[in-house]
Amino acid sequence: MAEDTDQTTPTEKDFSTVQFGLDTFGDVTADDEGNPLPPAQVLRNLVEQGVKADEVGIDFIGFGEHHRDDFAVTAPEVALAAVAARTSRIHLGSAVTVLSSDDPVRVFERFSTLDALSGGRAEVILGRGSFTESFPLFGFELQDYERLFEEKLELFAAIRAGNPVTWEGTTRASLTNQSVYPPIEHGLLKTWVGVGGSPESVVRAARYGFALTLAIIGGEPERFAPFVDLYHRAMTQFEQPPQPVGVHSPGHIAATDEEAKEQLWPHYSAQMNRIGRERGWSPMGRGHFEQEVARGSLYVGSPETVAQKIASTVRVLGVDRFDIKYGNGALSHEKLMTSIELYGTEVIPRVRELLAS
Fold it and tell me: Which residues contact 141 (CB under 8 A, 6 or more apart)?
């Protein structure tokens, strides 16, 4: 049985190596007059945001895949390659790649290409996706939701191992002793599975030996502690070597708490209520927003406020990476750039101080 060297309680864990990232879906932002920008401009701005993140010392940036009019990113790897060409150290990944409606061979090829172009900085976060537009767009049935992800994750794991692949399933053509190119230059492609808190999804990630990203987008973060524990126990039972656990949560940073909340509130509430109408949720009120900021999973405020809250979450859950999902709604490019700069230059150094104390 493989030794799991990461089986420590949060209080025992060494937090000196915790990483800090950013995730975005490329939300269609607004100009100074509040008018939506063309998606092409949003994508160009996204590259500038990635460059800024690299300049201010952020460890990772992830672009999420969506196929709808309020998010601009449909091909994360292409946008990430543009960032790779203008940066030198930041790691680049998806947040997430919807594997269920994609082809594992092509996903690996695209990210191994990104890894080569970036000098080994590519990562992929695989998921089933919280939106379903990609299923009819690419000719898949929602009734096959579970089977599509299970089979394709199995195939992706086989491809990632780097050996010729023999595989048979029901969701794509079989493979017989076939290699996938280009190979990863050094080691294995860093692969995460993004989950929303389903025990079955946590165990599935462990079974394949993938790192785990918890999408914590509402409620108190500590309620996810049992999933972190389940993941570590499952990794041990499957005799997998230790892998990191990350958190993805929305946030926004400004000079003061009130400024950050006032900047985010109209855009975040409009986004959540728009999605809520599609899914039958009750409208979000200001009281609920304030509660999530104060005690839930919205990391919104001044650099000190956000740093204190991130440090608390990292300690409580014992995680290895924390990603702020920024650009929640039609916030302007300028405000996003300020938030990114504050995160890199003030929040992250302060979190490291807090974790070291």
Answer: 135
Distance between CA atoms of 219 and 266, rounded to whole angstroms?
20
pLDDT digits (tens, 9 = 90+) for 323-336: 999 999 889 999 99
For residue 284, give both structure tokens.
């979000």
Name the nearest CA neighbour of 159 among 143, 175, 148.
175
Strand pairing of 175-178 and 190-195?
unpaired
pLDDT at position 190:
98
49-88 burial: b if 16+ Cβ within 10 Å, else e: bbbbbbbbebbbbbbbbbbeebbbbbebbebbbbbbeebe
CATH class, 15-356 region: alpha beta
Q: Where are the domains of the chain?
A: 15-356
Whether the Cβ atoms of residue 111 and residue 124 lie closer than 8 Å to each other: yes
Residue closest to 354 by CA, chosen among 9, 18, 6: 18
- Dihedral angle sign, alpha carbons of residues 304, 305, 309, 310: negative
Task: Tell me the pLDDT tens digit for each residue of 165-200.
Answer: 999 999 999 999 999 999 999 999 999 999 998 999
**Residues 190 and 173: beta-carbon distance below 8 Å:** no
- In whole angstroms, what is the distance from residue 32 CA to residue 42 CA? 14
